[in-house]
Amino acid sequence: MQTAEVKATLDDRLLDVREVGELLNRSITSIYRDSDSGRMPFGVKFSGARRWRKSELMAWLADGCKPVRQTGGRR
Known about the structure:
Strand content: 5-15%
Structural class: alpha+beta
Shape: globular
Distance between the termini: 54 Å
Oligomer: single chain
């Protein structure tokens, strides 16, 4: 593989909650809470385990960590 292909492969790998916590310097509980509420990407589920695509998280960070979906709050 060429260098660009290796980088693309590493950027698209799936991270578990522990790796996401290390990347964002956050607790596992806060990762699940924020992804469930739409404040960060939800990730994908495989047999009950959730994983996040590194490239999606990096794009979310680069965009200023904006909520990925609106929640229905009280008025």
